[in-house]
Every structure is written in C-alpha cells, then in structure tokens.
Amino acid sequence: MAKGLGVLDWLARQGTGARLGEVALALGLGRSNAHRTLQTLVQCGWARQNPADSRYFASLKLFELGAIVDGAVELKDRLHPFLAALAQATGETIHLTVLQGADMVYLDKFDSPLPVAAYSRIGGRAGAHCVASGKALLAALALDDAALRSQLGVDGNALIAHTPHTLTTVQALQADLAAARARGWASNAEEWRLGVCGLGAAVFNARGQAVAAVGMSVPAMRCAAAQASALALPLLQCAAQASASLGWSGTVDSSPNSTRSPAATAGTTRKRRPA
Predict the structure, then answer these.
(1) CA-to-CA distance for 254 and 137, rounded, in angstroms?
(2) pTM
(3) Is 152 within 8 Å of 87 (Cβ atoms)?
(4) Mean pLDDT, to the nearest integer, of 116-122?
(5) Which residues contact 3 (CB under 8 A, 6 or more apart)?
C-alpha cells in the first residue's frame, strides 16, 4: 500500500504524466514492480493511461476527494459559530455531521458541561439509520425504498441493530423518516447507544441540497417527550441560520412541529444527494 501511495503521490505532481520507465527510475522500482503498481492504480480508478503514448496520469478521483475534504473543512468553519450558540443555549452536546454512504461523519462538536453527557468524537462515524442527524439527512433526501437500501448498503429490508431500540427494517425507518419530514427534525431514541437520545435537523445550501446536519446528543434521562420538543426549537433555529449562511432562502417557521422548516420544505421537493 505504501508503494502504491508513493507512486500516486509522485504521479499526481507530474503535470505531463510519465511513462513506465520514468516512474520506475524516479522511485527506484523495477519495471515489472512499477508496472504492477501502476496497473493496480488504473484498475482502482486512481490513475489512467493514455493509449496514444502510454503515459500514466493521476485521475480526477484525487481532485474529487480533495474537493470533498476542502468542502468539509469550509463547512465546519462556516457553521462553527451557529453550533457554538446552540451549545451555549442548551447545554447539551452538539455535532455537525455529513453523510458518507451509510455513515454519518462527525465534523465538529461541542461537549456538554453537564455531569452526564453523551460521548462522541470528531472524525468518528455512526450509522445514519440510527442517529438523529443521519435520519434528518435521509429524511431530507426523501429516497424511495430501493434508493434508501442502496444508500445504506443493504440488499434486503434488514438494517444493522446497534441496540434493542434500533429500527431494523427499511419499512420502519421510512415511517420514522416520514414523521421527521413532517415535523422538520429527526429523533433517536437510544438507537445508536443505550442511554443516549438525540435530535437532528438538516442544513441546506443555496440549491436546496441537504449538505450537513446539526445534531444534539442528550442522555435519555434528559430526553422525555416534552424535553425533546423544547430542545427542538433552538435546534431548528440553528439549522435555519446555518442554512441561510450557505445561501438557502426558503421560508422557515422554526417551531418544533412546523412543516416549513428546512428539512420539511426542501426535503419534500428535492431528492438530490448531499453535495
């Protein structure tokens, strides 16, 4: 793996590409070894070979990944103040997450100062179908059953159970996502970790695409129905402000039961995947 990454790194820096012999000489590899490495990179989509002159080039896959990483960093920096304000207002653990395949990836986090707090870490992952931020984004995407299975990487209807409370069928998840769309925010009732509940709301860009989610992790002892409803108000306000900062201009009624929140209004009319 280290050899392949070394070849890819060197190749990406050659503006005019390189032939097999040049790669082998530059990296001190035998021709057969360099050839196998280059062909592996080509087969995996990281490099391409020009049939006209046999020169190898790094593929645009590097550019695509770089754009994703840059976009995530920019998103984190831009939305950080809104998360900070939500954390200050509620005293709960606040996250910024993005959807990658079947998982949510944590980009930013504010820990709760309260004695009992929910644990997570920046860079960590959680199953999208069993955390509130994931369900908020899935609700916004409004995928049909087949597309939802594809997003979550499942062939049938069974979903991975992480606790006894996890929704384990596509049908049950779809019903929960429909409820989330109707009220504008999603919930997690100890579905990822026992003793931890959550609320989540999608964040939209100027094109109305759900690009991130604001999540709130709350110990189950502080997340009764009335408490969750009260926490949903500042959560929705935070998501609306974050969306506005990205250029989203939809009309927002930030009440907990509203169907005019970003998740409800954009999610029911657009089915694009997050940028």
Answers:
(1) 17
(2) 0.68
(3) no
(4) 66
(5) 29, 33, 37
Considering the domain 2-59 in this protein, what is its CATH number?
1.10.10.10
Q: Which residue(s) pair with 197 in the sheet?
A: 189, 218
What's the CA gap between 176 and 170, in Å, rounded?
A: 10
Which of 3.40.50.720, 3.10.20.30, 3.10.580.10, 3.30.450.40 would CATH assign to domain 68-267?
A: 3.30.450.40
Q: How far apart are CA 119 and CA 106, in angstroms?
A: 12
User: Under a CB-based contact definition with an 8 Å cutoff, are residues 185 and 261 in contact?
Assistant: yes
CA angle, corner 243, sides to 241 and 245, nearest 5?
Answer: 70
Is 68-267 the same fold as 2-59?
no
Q: What is the C-alpha separation between 168 and 152, in angstroms, rounded? A: 12
Task: Count CB atoms within 10 A of the CB of residue 211.
Answer: 25
Which tokens go with 246? Answer: 């990205």
Q: Select from 191, 262, 209 the least CA-distant residue to 98.
A: 209
Whether residue 177 has pLDDT greater than 90: yes
Cβ neighbourhood burial of 105 (10 Å; 0-12, 13-18, 19+): middle
Nearest to 104 by CA among 37, 204, 200: 200
Over the stretch 20-79, which tens digit does the pLDDT of each residue have?
Answer: 999 999 999 999 999 999 999 998 888 899 888 899 998 877 766 665 665 666 888 889
* Residue owning tokens 């709760």: 112
Distance separating alpha carbons of residues 265 and 250, to the nearest angstrom: 8
Top pLDDT among 144 and 267 is at 144
Write down the domain spans for the chain. Answer: 2-59, 68-267
User: What is the residue whose two structure tokens read 């993005």?
Assistant: 98
Q: Let me know: does 256 contact 126? Beta carbons within 8 Å.
A: no
